[in-house]
Predict the 3D structure of the following.
Amino acid sequence: MAAGTDAPVTEAECKYHLAGLTPVEWRVTEVRPAGMDSEPRVYELGAPDTVPNSHIDDHPHTAGTNHTVGKHDNVHDSLLKATSHGNESKGLSAGVQDKNDDGSDRLGSVNIPTSSNDPLGSIDASPEVVFGPSSAKRPRGRPKGSKDTKPRKKRGPNKNKNSPEAKAAAAQDFVSFLSMMDEHAEDQFAHFAMDDGEELVEAEVFLSYECEPGQNEKPARAFHPNNPYRPKWVESKDKEQTRLESYKAWRKLTDEEELRWRRGQLQAVPCALLLNRKRCGRYKSRLVVLGDRWRQPSSDNSVYASVVSQTGNRVAMTFAAREGFTPIPFDTQNAFVQAQMDREVAITLPPSFRDDDDDSGRRMLCKALYGLPVSPRLWAKTLAATLSKLGWVECKYEPGVWVKRDDKGKVIGILTVYVDDCVLCAAAPELAEEECAKIHKHHELTKIATTTNADGALCLDLLGADIEFNAKARTLKLSMKNFINKLLKRFDLQEMKPRPHPGFPEQQLYSKASSPSGFAYRGCVGALQWLSSVARPDLAHATNVLARASSQPVTKAMANMCKLVLRYVIATKDLGIMYSPELEAEYQAKFESLVEHADNKNAVNSAQAAAPVHTFTDASFGVTYREMRSVSGVGIFLFGTPVDWKTKVQTVFAISTTESEWIALSDGIELGVGVQSLAEFLIGKEKSPKGPLWCDNRGAVISGRKGIKNTEEIPKRTRHVALRFAKVLTEAERLWFCPTDYQKADGLTKSVNPFALKHIFINHPPPSSKYVDESELGDEEEVVNYYHVYQAMIDDE
């Protein structure tokens, strides 16, 4: 085997931690022919020791020279060499094969002494190597003293991850991992493979200080003297301190306040410095208040601060695209510290923020800081006062959505606010720039970078969603492709085979025959839930089914069901919510034609079909595996674009399909209130009448049309349903019958029908004679002979 290979091993794969550092690379440095007699050699190295040339010639930074550990680029100042020999060693580990006194084999762990003055716990030079756990007993807790009022409880076994036992276990885990590698891992660890007649003799593990983008960092690591990235962290910390001092975020305590503090009448809340590397690679420091230590006065319990919801964002962006507005996304700089404190809060600054060693660090807070529970509310009130002064009006039904009107009452600008992340859309580019400049005079803002694609659409990131906005063509697309790629990379599933639907047999989630699994089930379900909440209503039902089993111990069957859903996600990365004038025209033509349907003719108000907001409801009767409850699906559409949806298990037992559809109608009426109110706020009440309630169950439609004043005409079998959900009767004039092929909420109650899933996004998905993959469905699953845009994918199979 060639020495000095560069293939990396991730932290999760090697399961090895040393002094809080992250292993970034394993390098095989020597391969010796099998059978050669030699004593095992173990090196424990640290500055100023040197490594012999024979053991580092293959390293690109040290080839051909005596190397002082810690002097090369991007490599930690200490490294550990672990050696194994003989046919007994089958894999790479951080321990060595050693002999007990009786001659038996045992796996010895390297005992690494650490310096008490080194917060990082770096490896010090040691004159000898000690195998096995230390014989010295470590004192536990503080000594017994006068503060002890009751017998102290004995602690359990030491579970410190840096203990010799933990390190030996981690080493053994890695050996076992290599021996159980699957096909994919074998390709990744191919550099560990040895030719016939060779055996692994020696290996090195290199440890790095580098913090990956998007990750947090510990101050002890960031400001360690040997950290090559320390100047960047120091620069970010100094920038944060200068920023806060320029805003006069605090002041020193007066003599009276100092006396109150000594008497215990004034609480000083501690602060902490958080370090983070942004996704763009920038190093960022943030001083925060430990809000959990703040005791809020009982007389004031107002800490709520409203932000725009995902529904509000979708409605606002759809309206802006339809009107041809120009969007400008921006971020408000130093948002919280621009808000004045309206109450008395004392803080304790970290030592690095104090004037000198004699400074206690106690300050009285003048501006709102991150971490304080009341800070978001103070900033929201400050920004609201500024926007109101500039002529903006906030929607009472959807806080976080602001509009600006001209003298005739027409909307010429729309603004969405999510804490300090905002998107301003205006009727003209010049007007958008002018409004941004006005806000900038009061609160410093930074425009978020955008790009333009080949179609001329503006591409931007909105709270994790990918937005393609073309003001000239008046089109909008909201998708989650970047998030999906990160999700698949997180679970290492990029190469899985796509599938045309996310359906799976629910009973597999509760299989007792399946063995336990270490799969991050709840993390996967949480990611899918975020995906379905932002831009993928077609995943709502499958995610709902997965979430219902999240309290169960994770099994391999549960992990496999998650992977089935992710395979569908792979096939539909580019799928998302779209708006265009063409799609709106198709939608209107399609559903206005239902006025002549036999179940709607002379029974509905035909003008409702032209309303901007339509509500679709559907139900699957008695389908939940354990409780036999029904499932409601609701979709709210604005100008033919899905802007809000919900899939939920009904809270009451339905004893018939008609009853389950009534319950779904009730859920739809409740969900549609917010969208209808926001549409009236943006468009005007006279231009936004209430739209139809679409239902594909004749019994529910006929009973509901009787109205609240004619309950005696409702059949006896459905009267108890009408009394329980009387809100459906109050909307009797809006009930429209919808054939199943037109039902857009059908994909929210079942996941095995590709036609229904695609129908949520477009109006005319073409049916086909091809079948979905029946081999992946359970006996209880419904198989539907429909096919859609994944034609090319299945043809390739």
About this structure: The longest helix spans residues 657-683. Residues 1-132, 181-186, 188-192, 768-797 have pLDDT under 50 and may be disordered. The CA atoms of residues 403 and 414 lie 4 Å apart.
